[in-house]
Amino acid sequence: MEALIKFFLLIPFVGFIISLMIPSKNETLISWTAFLTTGLQLFFSTVFVGYWLFNGHSTLDERDIELFRSLDYVFFIDLFFDKITAVYLLVGSFLTFIVAVYSRYYMHRENGYKRFFNTKLFFFLGYNLTILSGNLETLFVGWEMLGVSSFLLIAFYRDRYLPVKNAVKVFSIYRIGDIGLLLAMWISHHLFHENITFMKMANFELVSEHLSEHTMIGFALSLTILLSAVAKSAQFPFSSWLPRAMEGPTPSSAIFYGSLAVHIGVFLLLRTFVFWEHQYPVRILIASVGIVSALIAIGTARVQSSVKAQIAYFSIGQIGLIFIELALGFQNLALFHFATNALLRTYQLLVSPSVVSYLIREQFYNYSPHKHSLEYRYPSKIRNTLYLLCLQEWNLDSMMYKYLWNPIKFISRKLHFINFEKIIIFFVLVYSAGVFFLFNREMIPFRIPESSPTVFALIGLFMVLKAFSERKRVRMSWWLVVMNHFWIALTVAYNEKLQFSEIAMYLGGVIVSAIVGHLCIMRLKKIEKEVSLGQFNGYIKKHPKIAIIFLLACLGLTGFPITPTFIGEDLIFSHIHSNQIFLALFVSMSLIIDGLAIIRLYARLFLGPHVKSMYEMAYRSS
User: Rounded CA gap, 232 and 145, in Å?
Assistant: First the structure.
């Protein structure tokens, strides 16, 4: 049966490839491809799960593809199937099929009809890879695919300001979750001394043996997993991104933010449950996050003026309850709760356009006064305070800006004195000296201090911070991100001896993507003369070919799974020692911020309203 698991990935992959090749004007063929792909997946899933249950429902694990091997490191794709996978697979296949049927008519004659179904099938492939993953590395591949497809679907109406702005905002929260997963992979390598699979992690004796010797490392691993789960499932304090994600079409809101993608954080906690179930401080923390999220979300949902925002906050509240159930040890209840919540929220979002018109008509013809609820029993000051807090969404969005993004931007602005010429000179001189002494350490008149790798990582972090805040020079922002990857490679080379193949694995994809992206920027500047990062330029409609090539270059530079850079990033972390916490933190932060800088660069150049448009547009959301 293990050999059949890969068909759950093959079916959506083939459907996605076929969908890419269909002309954009042929709506019927595009929709039928999505319909048949999701329908075949649903049929195969149902038959397979039924056969699996009938034959004893044993846990299945298959080490499928080995992508890279070195002396002390192996990167492989591992597929895993158990009851958690079965529930997520059936629910995901059913809901994606329903949304595919719904979207055939809802998206009719939309300019981005083909683009919508392509992205939805790409999401479906990433979702299946995530839930079938047998180790953290495989899960991270699917995790990244979900993040990119999410960004593209939120920014579906890419000629409008608000969808693009909110897409970048949501992607920034996703990158925080990426920090958690990157650090989780690094910690797990040092804790288990291998690329640990979920099958082995489910072995209670093995986990207990390692945790008894390294209690604090195990606690740190649990915290990084929780950080990823909280960010992905929009729990406190990251709850504000989910309503903003509703800027996309209603079908994408239903499949992404009402049902499947928003429950991936729950999946991560379920998959690693055996690891953290006996760490009671972690369970208390998970329960606390769930309680706070549920209370804030349910109150906020009741004062929202948008039906999609209401559903989003109610979904956050229910996921908070699922977190509480997991903290109490009720795995099966959490699985059942996920399935019912996903089905309900998908239904609510799909019928929301009809419900709004129905309620408006009923209010007009059959008006009835609002009934008093429980809050009216509270003292007026408490009631009014709670109302204002919920109306302002408990200032969660402002808190994220004040305590996270504004400090990053503040540091970035302090680097305004740096120009492109100075950076090039600094990079060539210092980096050349660093490479020279790397191969001629005996020529150094003094012993290289142990902090040298951390210093190099910090230089790369400052460069990528400057790229993130740059508002004028496009080329400078692009090459600062590229330089950051070279600083990371030098950092780890000083930290531990690397093989040439490992450096080539990491920097190979970076160099190719850097050159392709630079050529796209130069071509765009040649055509449009003035290109600035101070606003959205909206050049995608005028230059669609340049936009798609530049997007692929961006994905390559951020270490997306389509390039060897992705494997190289994980390889880099495997060479950071367990006692180098600041080094791991600086490297992970630089990789995350360079992803933000690159996506911001793409959005500013190609998305949003056209820079020369004469029409007014909204710059604030309701």
Answer: 13
192 contacts 136 by C-beta, under 8 angstroms: no
Q: Please, where are the H alpha helices in 198-279?
A: 198-201, 204-213, 215-232, 241-244, 250-252, 264-271, 273-276
Q: Which residues of 287-314 are buried (b: 16+ CB within 10 A; e: fewer)?
A: bebbbbbbebbbbbbebbeebbbbbbbb
- Which residues have CB under 8 Å from 221's CB, separation 6+? 184, 187, 188, 191, 275
For residue 135, give the 3-state DSSP assignment: strand
Following CA atoms 520, 522, 527, 531 in sequence, which dihedral angle do they give, to the nearest 10 degrees? 100
| 30 Cβ neighbours under 8 A, 6+ residues apart | 19, 22, 24, 113, 114, 117
The predicted model scores a pTM of 0.91
Structure tokens at 507: 């920097």
Instruction: Kindly report, residue by residue over 89-134, the tens digit of the pLDDT.
Output: 999 999 999 999 999 888 888 888 999 999 999 999 999 999 999 8
Q: What CA–CA distances, in Å, run from 12 to 79, 149, 157, 388, 554?
A: 16, 14, 25, 46, 24
Average pLDDT over residues 457-477: 86
pLDDT band at 447 (very low <50, low <70, confident <90, very high): low
Does residue 12 have a cis peptide bond before it, meaning omega lies within 30 degrees of 0? Answer: no
Q: Please report, for the chain, how many H helices and E strands are present, in that order.
A: 26, 2
Element (H, E) at 67: strand 60-69
Rounded percentage of the chain residues whose pLDDT exceeds 90:
30
Separation of alpha carbons 247 and 262, rounded Å: 15
Interval 495-511 mean pLDDT: 78
- CB neighbours of residue 534 within 10 Å: 10
Q: Give the contacts of 18 (CB within 8 A, at least 6 positions apart).
A: 33
DSSP 371: P
The letter for the amino acid at 377 is: R
DSSP classification of residue 403: I
Residue 115, amino acid: R
The structure tokens 């808190």 sit at 399
Question: What is d(CA 300, CA 239) in angstroms, rounded to the nearest whole number?
Answer: 11
Q: What is the mean pLDDT of residues 313-335?
A: 93
Alpha-helical (H) ranges within 444-580 are 452-469, 474-495, 500-528, 544-557, 564-574
Band of the pLDDT at 622, cuts 50, 70, 90?
very low
Q: What is the pLDDT of residues 216-247, one digit of tens each?
A: 888 889 999 999 999 999 898 888 888 888 88
Predicted confidence band of residue 618 (pLDDT cuts 50, 70, 90): low
Mean predicted lDDT score pLDDT of the chain: 85
Residues 6+ apart with CB under 8 A from 83: 57, 335
C-alpha span between 93 and 495 (Å, rounded): 46
131-156: pLDDT as tens digits: 999 888 889 888 989 988 989 999 89
Residue 81 has phi, psi (to 5 degrees) of -140, 125
Residue 577: its pLDDT value, please?
80
Phi/psi for 79 (5° steps) reads -110, 140
Nearest Cα residue to 494 out of 423, 440, 548: 440
